[in-house]
Amino acid sequence: AKDPVRVLVTGAAGQIGYALVPMIARGIMLGADQPVILHMLDIPPAAEALNGVKMELVDAAFPLLKGVVATTDAVEACTGVNVAVMVGGFPRKEGMERKDVMSKNVSIYKSQASALEKHAAANCKVLVVANPANTNALILKEFAPSIPEKNITCLTRLDHNRALGQISEKLGVQVSDVKNVIIWGNHSSTQYPDVTHATVGGKPVPELIKDDEWLKSGFISTVQQRGAAIIKARKLSSALSAASSACDHIRDWVCGTPEGTWVSMGVYSDGSYNVPAGLIYSFPVTCRNGEWTIVQDLSIDEFSRKKLDLTAEELSEEKALAYSCLS
Length: 327
Ligand code: NAI
Prior knowledge:
Blueprint: E1 5-10, H1 15-25, E2 36-41, H2 47-59, E3 65-71, H3 74-78, E4 83-86, H4 98-119, E5 125-128, H5 133-142, E6 152-154, H6 157-171, E7 178-179, E8 182-184, E9 192-194, E10 199-200, E11 203-204, H7 205-208, H8 212-224, H9 226-234, H10 240-255, E12 263-268, E13 280-288, E14 291-294, H11 302-326
Parallel strand pairs: 1-2, 1-4, 2-3, 4-5, 5-6
Antiparallel strand pairs: 7-10, 8-9, 10-11, 12-13, 13-14
Bound molecules: 1,4-dihydronicotinamide adenine dinucleotide (NAI).
1,4-dihydronicotinamide adenine dinucleotide (NAI) is lined by residues 10-11, 13-17, 41-43, 46, 87-91, 108, 129-131, 133, 155, 158, 187, 237-239, 242.
């Protein structure tokens, strides 16, 4: 039998945490033959609720779940973890300035970076979900210099999956037949959902959907605004789809992407596609042997170029704002 993998979920007493931990314990993230030990971190006001989640995990009697650590101590939570899913963060509340929210998250991600760097297992893979996801991941990277930058990513797979869903609904085809959409840039409303290279059953999506107007406007804004639409409908933000997409992100990263298929991940930019190096930016990637690689040489038309640049600009601004919170 395989040795258990230790998976950290921060913010585990929250909404996404509640949907995510049973998925991990059922083998949806790492495979049906991979035992796991769950490490769950939250803050003291949520300690009791966190303990309730731990009780439910025990009650669910998951065969793959070999242990549960539920704690409000970041060092204890990070010790020995092989995968870290960072869902905990400070939400933007009504009337709060952007800078104040950024400042709270910068201090959270700075201190959790240190705890991970000192105590996580070697080669720990990190996925940041909490918003502002790209910039939280960047802060984590800066304050955990001994963790390879390749190991620090953020979640844009939910946006990617939303794009697959919209194309499947529009064409009336199975979502599993839609491939190779791309989310470029920030996990925010400036993201660029790109179907230029997407296919259904091997045929290019732009040829199948003869509605250029929809592709260039309705589709893009629906995907960009989907998070807000969920909040409006549910009075709560996306949770099951976020949790499911986080599992997809880690599974593909660890187990590899299928031949001929790419996915979107927020990763440290090396300057590919003239995206400024040093941002955490969402790119199309393939994964093999536990490592992602940015898909190269895709053609970028003028329309796309503008959208890639716009979301990069926003990320550069966020980066500057985050750094101004450090001084
Ligand atoms: P939530 O408010 O239900 O849960 C957040 C949890 O984090 C709470 O239990 C809170 O106590 C905890 N927390 C706060 N500070 C913490 C700290 N320093 N250490 C550990 N835990 C801490 O929020 P929800 O709905 O679960 O969302 C979590 C985050 O994910 C939010 O930032 C949200 O904006 C983001 N999100 C990102 C998505 C993406 O696609 N990247 C999609 C959906 C949500």
